[in-house]
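Exercise 3.2. Students should predict the tertiary structure of the chain below and write it as structure tokens, then compare their answer with the key that follows.

Predict this chain's 3D structure.
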Amino acid sequence: KNFKVSIIIPTYNRAKQLKLALIAIAKQNYGEKFELIIVDDGSNDETKEVSLSFFQKNNLKINGVYLHQKNQGCAVARNLGIKVAKGEYLFFTDDDCIVPPNWITRILEGFKKYPRASAVGGWYEVNEKNLQKNKYLQVISSSGHQKNPCGNTANVCYKKEVFSKIGYFDTWTRKTARIDWEFKLRAHYNGLHLLYIPLIVRYNKTMTLYGFLHNAFRYGQADHYLSTRFKDYGNVLYLPHIFYHLSNIYNKYPTSKLRYYFIFLFVRLLGARYAHFLKVKSSIIYTKKYIEVT
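Answer key:
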């Protein structure tokens, strides 16, 4: 059976967070039965048990699909979900996200109002309790966006036909960030329209010092890769971005947090240099000429 809506969630060793994410999915006010695909990226916790138990309890409303693969990263996991999805609209979120009850309906309304849109999405906010007590999250969550933020895989829906037109998520490296940004830039450069709506998903996450530094390094790798592929992306030292981020942090938090941003920036630079040294290559074969979209 084909469905109008398929939701794809990649997950890896986050059974507790996944359970909360699934509870939010079950509370959707969407009136039709939809498909939910959980792609287990090689977990060794209770992810499978949590998934199958949820599907059994919600089988009247949700057609559940559980997939398991060896650990290969979220891009490969999402691509597997896309290949088996039966929906016309493919919704993406993460295993540590709490979507609002009107998530599906609001996004479908966006497609109805703007039929030319190939994607509709909102943004995310970190859980306020976690944010206030975690200085690392404060730095990362203050980055903000000056352009269209639609495309973050925590809160976006693409028409399935998009993947036939421009390919799947780029698996150029397993442990990097900005995989969703590469895809949205590729969509823009191919002349597709992405619609942003003010719809917020809550991130139920925290962050350690290791995670903070690891993310910075991964962002740097992605910055180098994207700046070499997309001429208008800007590199890690793009000054307007730096000043914009600094002003956000300065306005929201005490000035003491600025030192963490400079640490983040320094490690990000190291990541960019590392990617330059590796000369990473894309897994996507670019067969179409890019179209500039203003």
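Discussion points: DSSP finds eleven helices and eight strands in the chain. The first helix runs from residue 15 to 26.
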